[in-house]
Amino acid sequence: MVNFISPSILSSDFANLAEECYNVLNAGGDRLHVDVMDGHFVPNLTLGAPILKSLVKRMKEKYATNAYYDCHLMVAEPEKWVKDFAAAGASMFTFHIEATKDPVALIQTIRGHGMAVGVSIKPGTPLSVTAGFGKTDILSMVDLALVMTVEPGFGGQSFMGDMLDKVREIRKRYPDLEIQVDGGVSVDTIKQCAEAGANNFVAGTAIFKAEDWAATIAEMKALAK
Ligand SMILES: O=C(CO)[C@H](O)[C@H](O)COP(=O)(O)O
Ligand SMILES: [Co+2]
């Protein structure tokens, strides 16, 4: 299975966002993880589709780069933002299972707008919730499952190792599904994530606050093999 390192731009210098994104991809980052927070679903505010749109445009025009924009929507009513994120250039739209009443319809809407679909689950939410929306398990309908390894809302928090039980359970049931872990992932914690079955590793602080981004990403990749 292919592994991805997804640098979380939450820990980048927002005043130099495009340059930071270009540099982190050059340092070996595979996909850009864009944390969208609305001050309701989580107690923090970050960025929305207008900033993503400017970033996508600058990356194309200045750096000739078509990056993969993995957008993690930590928002209430994610349905409201599908159209805007698609228009802004999002590659993947990951919503929280706790934030919607009708994930099946939401998944169809996201796909209808040409984006890949991810579903995310907070630490306190049992995995069984994803099976509670009719006959079909939500995990069988998506491209990616995001297991939060911190309480969503802020970068720089401590990794919650007990969340890896969810990763193991998903991997057992879905051998080919992309499984992302997000929160506190670093050179110290990535190996256990990979061993549990994750193949997509979000890291903000661990990369952007490191002195040598390329060396850190290379080390993370080696540990995840
Ligand atoms: O979704 C998130 C927080 O809600 C971030 O993606 C995550 O916290 C990454 O930051 P760090 O690697 O610093 O923990
Ligand atoms: Co995130």
UniProtKB/TrEMBL annotation:
Q: State the UniProt keywords alphabetically.
A: Carbohydrate metabolism, Cobalt, Isomerase, Manganese, Metal-binding, Zinc
State the EC number(s): 5.1.3.1
- Which Gene Ontology BP annotations are present? carbohydrate metabolic process; pentose-phosphate shunt
**Cofactor(s) recorded in Swiss-Prot or TrEMBL:** Zn(2+); a divalent metal cation; Co(2+); Mn(2+)
Which residues act catalytically here?
Answer: 35, 182
At the top level of its lineage, which domain of life is listed? Eukaryota
Tell me what reaction this enzyme catalyses.
Answer: D-ribulose 5-phosphate = D-xylulose 5-phosphate
Decide whether keyword Transmembrane is in the record: no
Q: Where does substrate bind?
A: 8, 72, 153-156, 184, 204-205
GO terms of molecular function: D-ribulose-phosphate 3-epimerase activity; metal ion binding
Family, per entry: Belongs to the ribulose-phosphate 3-epimerase family.
NCBIfam families on file: PRK05581.1-4, rpe
Official protein name in the record: Ribulose-phosphate 3-epimerase
Protein's organism? Carpediemonas membranifera
